[in-house]
Structures
1.
Amino acid sequence: MKQVELITDGACSGNPGPGGWAAILKYGQHKKELWGCEAQTTNNRMELQAAVEGLKLLKERCVVTIVTDSEYVRKGITEWIHGWKRNNWRTASKQPVKNQDLWEQLDHQVNRHEATWKWVKGHADHPDNNRCDELAVMASKTQSSST
């Protein structure tokens, strides 16, 4: 199986407000940047959207390392989602899970691959995470998309 690295980030001007997401896919010497936006959204939705969109580009089953600076996304997909699904998409306090639509999409995309999750500190020494941040902020400000 191909080994791929997916680096993701989301940004929002106001929360909620105009948002942007970005992802970088790396395979060998190949690197692809993608980004998109929503006019009215939240930072968490953009973080989730970045991971979903990056994984959707993979046409075959891969070994994927997903790099994120969002503990919400990493813990949500590796820890919390099991209980949410067991409890019919309710939190431990019986409230509806926020962003259920994106969690379901992310769950589907992750299950197509052998995925591992790596958290990195945002705005630190990870050049690809910093580039994703730049692209996500640009997408949120210009409301532009790479597609």
2.
Amino acid sequence: MDDGRRPRHIAIIMDGNGRWAHSRDLPRVRGHEEGIQSVREVARECARLGLIQLTLYAFSVENWKRPKREVEFLMRLLERFLVSEREEIEENNIRFAAIGRLHELPSFVVDELNRTIEMSKHNTGLTLCLALNYGGRAEILDATRRIASLVREGKVAPEQIDETLFERCLYAPEMPPPDLLIRTAGEMRVSNFLLWQISYAEIYVSSVCWPDFRREELHRALEAYSKRVRKFGGLQETNVEG
């Protein structure tokens, strides 16, 4: 694949950990543990290919509704991931980032999250962004509240509100829009993920569950993306502009 047909930013809805475990008569948590291996391999390959960003939907605002023991396990698993992957992040020149209502996460997660972000902030390769306690509607609401505050403070007039201002109030205004949105486990929905940013993203649905989504599956998605014609509402063929 030449650079002109390669996405700059891939966003992934990592689905199917529980189904993967159930099909093997294993506890659901084993699916989450195995999914970490997929995160590592996919991030490593995206870094090798020279992509700008990989954003992974790791924990949604709706996921708090899951059984308390599973949520506690996921938080501890996230804490271990943030510590154990630091060497991998450094070796691959990855800059780590996160989006979402991060202040609502347990303090032990926030502490390790901040350490990993600080440690990697000068790296110049792939940005690996985890969406944590994240929801697309929540992000839009939070951005709207920020704009309302600016108007109340007299810093912005209502007629000055446009897409550029709105994007500056999102969680990560520097984030390029995703070119490719991947969903695993065969589900056909976007699940409240990056609702503003994926307006023109190409969508690829993989039938495999996330723990089985490795380098080969990533390349299948990239191959499918390379054959798409991206028009952005116009008629001229474009492949990389987002």
3.
Amino acid sequence: MTVDVTQFGKVAVLMGGLSAEREISLLSGNAVLSALKNRGVDAHGIDVDENIVSVLSAGNYQRAFIILHGRGGEDGTIQGLLELLSMPYTGSGVMASSLAMDKLKTKQIWLAMGLPTPEFVILDSEKSCEHALEALALPLIIKPVLEGSSIGMSKVEKEDELITAWKKAQQCGGTVIAESWIEGDEYTAAVLDDQVLPMIKLKTTHKFYDYDAKYEADDTQYICPCGLSESEESVFAELSKEAFNAVNASAWGRVDFIVDENDQPWLIEVNTVPGMTSHSLVPMAAQQAGMSFDDLAVNILAMSTCVSCS
């Protein structure tokens, strides 16, 4: 679609921040900043810190492009601040951002709706680790529920690895879960303006699609078209939209899922501020759909909203 960029006014591209995903956010943010400038948007990069309120107020910005990954930027915090400032912003609102950032809450909502997601056990003690081994068959994936980019995650293949993996995840803060390991093919579905873009199949030589596989490895494969039949991709697209809408996510984002050997899909997580780096998945899917990186950034900005502004 053709977008009149003059409607945006002065745009703050919010990046960096204080989370464990700061460096990736800076890469994403600078890519978005460059794309918006290429399209003539009056965009300015802001490395978010504790002075963000005064920076936004002093800068007379009209709207914000949120490209902060992780806590403080993807969890409803910055969204709530922008609502108080009556400043339109990109992506999901406060509640959806908070829910999607919490892998446990997301799974609980999906289960309540009858959507497929791997079984799990909350780990809060060594005894709960023993319970996880009894309730769930090895291997397991251990996750801190409030981190992204696979930070703090471990695959557990032997019983004596579990306590170490739990303690590693604990260091991230918040709740930790053990989840049944699903053996199968991993896919991601990018959602843009209520449409699912061409899906991407992920292949890695690592134990799982971890931080290194996502951002540093050169041998990770991104297959798009993904190899699914048209009917299969259509079914999985509908499931992805249902999973996305379940947490009230909006505008743009990504749903990750695994398809096992019986062609059963298992929902893993929703990402409401996906990466926008050279290795990132949403830009790849958009390119397959015929949309350039610059156009993708402008289209995301065009969907910026603010509940308190209306």
4.
Amino acid sequence: MLADLKKTMSSLEIAQITGKPHNDLLKSIRKMEVAWSKITGGNFSLSEYKDSTGRKQPMYELTKRECLYIGTKFNDEERAKLVLRWEELETQKQLSPAEQLLYNAQLLVAQEKRMNAIESDVQEIKAQLTTRPQTFTIAGYATLNGIKMPLKLASNLGRKASRLCKIENIIPDEIPDPRFGIVKSYPIEILEEVFNDILVN
């Protein structure tokens, strides 16, 4: 049975099953480990994995008993998902090597999708920190769209955006920047035109 192949479940997989952020789950596990160690005399098994950037990150490998203990802090729906997942693992037939590879690949794809979604959110937050609603700095717009922006190119684009604003009788916003003091923030339609010229060229 698959249970013979898989004796533990990682905190990463638990986070995927329950929909919990992995960092929040790690914090909960660390807090609960104190009582577990006191009663059982053993600690949870700490391991690691590589994230999408190749950096090593911590995770736990937990037995079924440890998982169900951790699950006592979950809400009813999350706890039910965890119990059903263990039941599925224990009742599935032995996987062939090809099926095992497919299963592992599916887990990796799901993890990559989560990491890509997180990175996308981070890029948007970075852009928001350097812009006002409906307007963006050159750097903010570039960050939002994943475009590398050397200082010289940013300066050239800023001048073009300022000329377009003058033609359209638009007064750019000015916002504080910790590196350059006060910088201009342009309407998105101006930036789209300026960046479109760069992308076309």
